[in-house]
Q: What sequence folds into this?
């Protein structure tokens, strides 16, 4: 099923978190990579009218600290899905919580 069709099921507002991860250890490269990913997130966000970004989680240089925060916060019910840049397609941790995973690369 198309992600836009999935989003329609949520009605007027879809509360989303954003998770991005850069493996680069060079700060300038990491900043450029994250900026490019954020651009894709907002392109997707503005392609539909019902997404509200509640929180963002950004890991750099192989850190998984924000990932841990995302998993913890996913149990709070604050958001219905996670927008990402290809990092979470097979995330059983989030899928098992009933969250819609939106890959903004598409």
A:
């Amino acid at each position: 099923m198309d992600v836009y069709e999935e989003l329609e099921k949520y009605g007027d507002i879809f509360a989303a978190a954003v998770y991005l991860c850069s493996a680069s250890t060079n700060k300038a490269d990491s900043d450029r990579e994250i900026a490019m990913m954020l651009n894709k997130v907002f392109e997707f966000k503005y392609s539909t009218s019902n997404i509200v970004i509640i929180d963002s989680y950004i890991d750099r240089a192989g850190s998984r600290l924000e990932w841990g925060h995302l998993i913890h916060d996913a149990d709070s019910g604050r958001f219905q899905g996670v927008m990402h840049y290809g990092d979470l397609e097979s995330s059983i941790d989030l899928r098992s919580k009933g969250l819609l995973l939106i890959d903004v690369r598409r």
